[in-house]
Amino acid sequence: MEPKYSFGCSTSRPSGCLLNPEGSRMIFFEECKNSPKPNLKIHTHLFYANHLGEPEGYKSSKKLNIDAAWEKWNELHQKGWTEVYYHYG
């Protein structure tokens, strides 16, 4: 599967929610609100998920630079995580 993004592109950023293949964990990607454009940061929030694929318990959060966030997004897709609609916040 070819990635649909370009590293270093300031207009492209991972955003949304991914669910693992087992349906037991989900991760949210969101842009840090006060992050300056030249040094864009992305928050990731990892949750345990219930049998309905909804967040059930908080596990951890990380702040990543844009390249590391895209690497994580792509790595999870390659491991079978799928994008799901779920509003965070």
Description:
This protein has 89 residues and is mainly beta. It has one domain. The chain has one helix and five strands. Strands 4-3-2-1-5 form a five-stranded antiparallel β-sheet, covered by helices on one side. Mean pLDDT is 86; it is low at 1-10.
Low-confidence parts, pLDDT < 50 over ≥5 residues?
A: 1-10
Mean pLDDT: 86
The total domain count is 1
Helix/strand structural class? mainly beta
For the record, give the distance between the C-alpha atoms at the N and C termini, rounded to a whole number.
31 Å
User: What is the oligomeric state here?
Assistant: single chain
Shape: globular
Helix coverage percent of residues? 10-25%
Q: In percent terms, what proportion of residues is strand?
A: 35-45%
Count of helical stretches: 1
**Which strand order spans the largest sheet, edge to edge or round the barrel?**
4-3-2-1-5
Return the string of H and E elements: EEEEHE
Radius of gyration: 13 Å
Number of strands: 5
The largest sheet, given as strand count, sense and whether it forms a barrel, is:
5 strands, antiparallel
